[in-house]
Amino acid sequence: MTEDLAARFRLDLMHQLAARDRVPACAPLRISPYVAMSLLQKAVRRGETQLALQAAASLHHSALERLWRRIGGIAFEDVGIADLPALKLVSAALTGKRYRANLGGEWAVASFAVETLCRARKSRASDDLFMTLEALPSLAQDRLQLAKLPDAQLQRIVRHDPSLHRRALALLYLIGTDRPGGSLPARKGNTEQTFALLAELGVAPSTLEICRIGYRKTCEPLPPLVALLALENGLRSGVVDDPLPPELMIHGVPGWALDMFTREGKQALTRLLMARTGVGEFASAVLPPANRVRFLGQVLFRVEGGQLIQRVGGDLCDRLRSQLMFETLGVDPGLAVKALELMREDIPVLNRIRAAILKGQRHEI
To answer: Which residues, including other chains, have CB under 8 Å from residue 364's CB and lie 6 or more apart?
Structure first.
C-alpha cells in the first residue's frame, strides 16, 4: 500500500513535468550558500517566484544537497497542512538523483518544486507548534518528564491526552530527538512504530505517506507534526497576506534575506544593537549582553522573515502563531509586544545597515 502511494505520487509528478511549457533559466546570484538558503525560503513564503528560482539556481550551482534539503524543509515548515497536494509533488521530487535524472535532470525537477511551493497556500502551524514545544515556559516540566517515559506511556499520551502540546511532545520523543542542534532532551526513537501510531489515530493514508517520505528524506521533526495536525483540521477556506515591512533591494538581493543565520545578517543585527534605535535600546535594557543579538534575530523573524503570502488560518493555527509571537521570546508577553513594535519601526534603519554591509563586501571582491 505504501509503495503504491509513493508510485502514484511519482507518476503525478511525471505527468505535471511533461505538461510544463518550459524549464526556467538556471540563473544563479553571486551570494553565499547561506544567503541563498535564506533567500530561497523567504522568497517562497512571500510567493516571490523569480527570486526563489535565482536562490535555488545559486544552490544548484554550489550546494546541490543543501538545495534539496531546503526544498524538503520548506515544504513541511511553510506549506504543511495548507496544501497537501503541493507536499505530495515535493515528496515525489525528493525520491533521489537517479529518479530526477529520468525526469529531465536536477534543475528541471528542482525548479518545478520551487515554483510549486511558491504558488502553494501556506501554513507555518507545524513549525509554530515545534518552536512552542521547545520554548514555551509552561512546558518546561513536560519537556523533562516525558523524555524519561517508556514508549507505552508516550503512546497513551499521543492517543488520549487532551493537550495538543503534550501529544506532540510525546510524538517527538517516540520518533526520536537525538539529532544535531536539537534543544529537546535527546532520546532514540522508532520511526515505524511512530507512523503506525499515526495511522491508528486516523491520519489519511496519502497524508501519512507524504509525511513518511518527508521524514525519511529530511530527518526533521516537522513531517510527523504535519501528520498530527492533519487530524485537527479546522482550516479556513480563504487566504490572507501578512503585512510586509519596508523592503530594500541591494545588488539584486532583498534585505530580508539577511537573517540571524547568515553571517551578513548577524553582523547587521549586531550593528543595530549598537545603534541608537528603539529596539536596540530595548534589548540592552531588558537582556544580558550575551542574549541580545539572538533576541533581536528572533524578533526580526516574527515581524519580517516568517511573514507569509497566502496564509491559511484557523482557530488552532492562529492560537499556535500567537503563542510563538508573544510567549516564546523569553520575556513577558507585554514586553514581547513592545519589542515587535519597535523592530517594525526600525526595519528601515536595519535595511540601511544591511546595504552598507553588502556594498562593503562588493567592494572587496
So the answer is: none
Residue 1: closest CA among 193, 213, 209: 209
Which residue ranges form the domains of the chain, and what is each CATH number? Answer: 2-119 (1.20.272), 125-230 (no CATH), 249-364 (no CATH)
Beta bridge partner(s), residue 253? 250
Are 47 and 309 in contact, with CB atoms under 8 Å apart? yes
Give the 3-state secondary structure of 339-365.
HHHHHHHHHHHHHHHHHHHHHHHHHHC
Comparing CA positions, the residue from 75, 77, 80 lying closest to residue 94 is 75
Are 224 and 198 in contact by the 8 Å Cβ rule? The answer is yes
Contact 313, 235 (CB under 8 A): yes
Rounded CA-CA distance 67/53 in Å is 11
Q: CA–CA separation, 26 vs 111, rounded Å? A: 8
pLDDT digits (tens, 9 = 90+) for 189-206: 999 999 999 999 999 999
Give the DSSP letter of residue 309. Answer: S
To the question of pTM greater than 0.90 for the whole model, the response is: yes
| Cβ atoms of residues 265 and 293 within 8 Å | no
Q: Distance between CA atoms of 274 and 279, rounded to whole angstroms?
A: 10
Q: Where are the alpha helices (DSSP H) in 29-105?
A: 33-45, 49-62, 64-74, 84-93, 97-102
Residues 6+ apart with CB under 8 A from 341: none
> Using one digit for the tens of pLDDT, what is the confidence trace for 284-295?
999 999 999 999
Alpha helices in the chain (DSSP H): 2-18, 33-45, 49-62, 64-74, 84-93, 97-102, 106-119, 125-135, 140-146, 151-160, 164-175, 191-201, 205-218, 222-230, 263-274, 278-286, 289-300, 315-327, 333-364
Q: Note the pLDDT tens digit of each residue in 203-243.
A: 999 999 999 999 999 999 999 999 999 999 789 999 999 99
Query: CA–CA separation, 359 vs 225, rounded Å?
Result: 41
Cell numbers describing residue 344: 517594525
254 backbone dihedrals φ, ψ, rounded to 5°: -70, 145
Residues 234, 313 contacting (CB under 8 angstroms): no
State which H helix or E strand residue 249 sits in: strand 249-250
